Amino acid sequence: MAGTGKNVKAQGFNPYQAYGEPEIKRSPVRAILNKFSLTMSSGYGRTYYRHELNEGNISHYSGGLLYNGNIAQEPDGTYRYSGISHWLNAPRLNTGTTDPDNFNIIPLDTVSLKFGGSGYNIPFQIGLQLDINRFKIGGGLVYEMHRLNQLNAHLPLEEPYIPDFNNTSLSRYYFTMGAMVYDFKGWVYHLDMQIGAIRYGKAFDRNQMEHGLYFNLGIPIEYEFSEYFWLFIRPSYDFKNYLMQLPELPNGTVPESIAHRNSGLYVNVGIRIKYPEIPRCPVKSCRVQLKHVHDGREFRGQPIWKKQNPKIGELYPKLHRQKNRNKGKISGGY
Fold first, then answer.
1. What is the structure's pLDDT at 323?
2. DSSP collapsed to 3 states, 230-276
3. Hey, what CATH topology would domain 36-54+110-274 get?
4. Average pLDDT over every residue of 328-333
């Protein structure tokens, strides 16, 4: 470590006083960038779909389920059916011919029918936040791969709802704010909230959808490797829903929109990184692990994933002579 060599005893208490430098040079650009944190994460989520049908009827036949279905005999003697299929994501009027004995209609005038099921999500998230003491504000982007198998119906219908897709994707754009609530031996606990918009994938007919903002509440738990690098896990819960408009029926009526709830539970694992306000020491022979000064410029002694100010014994909890491989080299094993 280069310096003037003045007041060497002061280096153990405050190393900057040992150099007698009138001013330490620091980069204002680095100082500004150091106020921000970059987060990157992935994980696993579970989306829970729920909706209720309480008017019209539900019909099931060999081709699946129809909402507000109807069947009538044509002049040629065939039976033609009609009804709304795939009302979860892309409602459309479905028509065709079938055997009337296989076309069952359950009226919903006196009973409501509830559907429920879940699918999994794989999110990939990147965000940028401004750190202000214990608080943070920022924003980010999320891309999700989503898979849904089927929704099960409550009685009196035993047939499941089979969507017309297995896999699709979602995109999110969000604003976030939060605060640190507890810090214990390198473990940092936060509370935060995300508010944003969702763009559903091609499996959803976005022209027939109505949805507002989504809300996500999370509890990020970070482990601090250094003042520039953290590993975190973030369990969170999504609050979101949408309305799906339905097409016109052959009799000229338009059924009411169906309200879908699709809240979700997520666990993300990732890293948070800050841009260091001072560069790494360029002197290869320098072994100082504290922040220190060379020729009026301040440097850090450690990479970003290690603490910059290790205390005595933190790197080597055992004395050199107490290590097992060295006991035999010292008389008496001490």
1. 53
2. EEEEEEEEEECEEEECCCCCCCCCCCCCEEEEEEEEEEEEEEEEECC
3. Porin (2.40.160)
4. 47
